């Protein structure tokens, strides 16, 4: 399944253009602009599966750094500071990675 099966290409483009500059990524506004915040838990779970590149059941720091590239191959990688802030916001149990429930909470935050 492609991410565009759930999110519109226009919304993806708009969300990516809002965070082109280094250190301009804000997960709350990104999730809102891309339309993920208004999706069902199952749709959010499907997007999580796309983001979980190694299919470990978690989004680890390396996968988070490449987060934007899941939406467009021409998107930039997140900076170290953005990646760490994103991980800190989503990792509520402190295990150093984001599980599907944590991701769903983060999207709806």
Describe this structure in words.
With 109 residues, this protein is mainly alpha-helical. It is 49% helix and 4% strand. The protein has helices at 9-17, 27-34, 41-51, 61-65, 80-90, 100-108, and strands at residues 58-59, 98-99. Helix 1 runs antiparallel to helix 2 and helix 3 (41-51) crosses helix 6. The N and C termini lie far apart (25 Å). The mean pLDDT is 96.
Q: Order of strands in the sheet with the most strands?
A: 1-2
Number of strands: 2
In the predicted model, the low-confidence regions spanning at least 5 consecutive residues are: none
**What is the string of helix and strand elements?**
HHHEHHEH
Radius of gyration, taken over Cα atoms and rounded to an integer in Å = 12 Å
Summing up helix and strand content along with how strands pair, one would put the structural category as mainly alpha
**Shape field:** globular
Tell me the span between the first and last alpha carbons.
25 Å
Average pLDDT, to the nearest integer? 96
User: How large is the share of residues in beta strands?
Assistant: under 5%
Largest sheet: 2 strands, antiparallel
Number of helices: 6
- In percent, how helical is the residue content? 40-55%
SSE inventory with pairings:
Elements: H1 9-17, H2 27-34, H3 41-51, E1 58-59, H4 61-65, H5 80-90, E2 98-99, H6 100-108
Antiparallel strand pairs: 1-2
Helix pairs in contact: 1-2, 3-6
């Amino acid at each position: 399944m492609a991410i565009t099966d759930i999110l519109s290409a226009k919304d993806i483009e708009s969300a990516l253009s809002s965070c082109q500059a280094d250190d301009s990524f804000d997960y709350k506004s990104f999730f809102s602009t891309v339309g993920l915040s208004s999706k069902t838990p199952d749709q959010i779970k499907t997007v999580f599966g796309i983001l979980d590149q190694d299919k470990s059941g978690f989004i680890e720091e390396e996968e988070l750094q490449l987060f934007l590239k899941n939406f467009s191959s021409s998107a930039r990688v997140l900076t170290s500071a953005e990646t760490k802030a994103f991980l800190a916001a989503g990792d509520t149990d402190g295990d150093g990675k984001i599980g599907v429930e944590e991701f769903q909470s983060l999207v709806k935050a």
